[in-house]
Amino acid sequence: MSDWRGRRVLVTGHTGFKGGWLCLLLEELGAEVTGFALPPPTVPSLFESAGIGAGLTSVIGDVRDLAAVEAVVRQAAPEVVFHLAAQPLVRYSYDNPVETYATNVMGTVHVLEAVRQAGGVRAVVAVTSDKCYENREWVWPYRESDPMGGHDPYSSSKGAAELVIAAYRSSYFESGDAPKLASVRAGNVIGGGDWSVDRLIPDLVRAFEAGEAPVIRSPASVRPWQHVLEALVGYLAIADRLHAGDASFADAWNFGPADEDARPVAWIADRMAQAWGVAGDWGTFDGPIPHEAGLLKLDCAKARAALGWRPTLTLAEALESIVQWHKSVGGGASARDVTLAQIRDFLARQTTFERAAA
């Protein structure tokens, strides 16, 4: 396994769901983590329930504030930066486009500019989204070389962030001693402790816990669902190579599930109900629904070939782990202990780190 002990790491977006899992993963691996983000976006939140702030230096701030970003980069003096801070919701972006673009595009500019000005950073992994691609609603999975696009403000902001990353890489980060910069594009990440609004798994969990039948949108829509740790282990494997100075990894990377686990919304709802032990009855939202992609798959052949990365959990196993997380925590177990136990079990089952360190 890669040795992250004592490695200084800055994580933007550490108060969010994905950032929280990343911080606990890094803590488990021995890294010295500083987090920079707005306050937790939901109540409850993984950040609060799992006590994530206890294992790192937490700085509350906004990536739209360049001076604040520059200050935390100087303070943390990181070797590795993971940039996750974002406005992450498609439907929210329709109502709040200015905030979405300011956070997702200019926030990315601010992080990369702060890294450029500070010096000393060896690796930057900038997280965008599978929705950065120009979605043509076709059956073929998208490759890293496919065009950027986006029908809605969220998706197009992530495509624009990819263009920012590519421009900074070619303009500032290609000399021998400059930081190595990669972008990573994951599918729909799922896991315990996600209480976001307008997301399928959190909506299902809230309904099950309340003893109600869930209401879902677009039951036939297909997404690349995967457990959050699948993507995060890929991100760390890329960071390892960049930290070691391997410029061939300073590129764009997809991390998604196996083709057979790109499932429709209705399948997820039925399987989650089965795992929870409740009737698989659900209603369909009958109000106006802004445009969302109906079919989206990722081609991850590049990560498989270069990193030996591949999914560790089947989608059914990932859903069962979510049910186990929420039932355990709902029954009084420590959210921190449950999350760390799932991280340890996951790490024991995969070999991406060994391949990345080879």
TrEMBL record:
> Which Enzyme Commission number(s) are on file for it?
4.2.1.45
- Return the broad EC class: lyase
**InterPro entries, sorted:** CDP_4_6_deHydtase (IPR013445), Epimerase_deHydtase (IPR001509), Lipid_A_modif_metabolic_enz (IPR050177), NAD(P)-bd_dom_sf (IPR036291), Sc_DH/Rdtase_CS (IPR020904)
Keyword annotations for this protein, in alphabetical order, are: Lyase
Q: Which Pfam families match?
A: Epimerase
- The reply on keyword Lyase is yes
A GO molecular-function term, please? CDP-glucose 4,6-dehydratase activity
Recorded hits in SUPFAM superfamilies, A to Z, give: NAD(P)-binding Rossmann-fold domains
Q: Where is the NAD-dependent epimerase/dehydratase domain?
A: 9-246
State the CDD domains in the record.
CDP_GD_SDR_e
Which superkingdom, per the lineage?
Bacteria
Entries under Gene3D superfamilies matching the protein: NAD(P)-binding Rossmann-like Domain, UDP-galactose 4-epimerase, domain 1
Q: Which PANTHER family match?
A: BIFUNCTIONAL POLYMYXIN RESISTANCE PROTEIN ARNA, SUGAR DEHYDRATASE_EPIMERASE YFNG-RELATED
Q: What is this protein called?
A: CDP-glucose 4,6-dehydratase
Report the source organism.
Sphingomonas immobilis
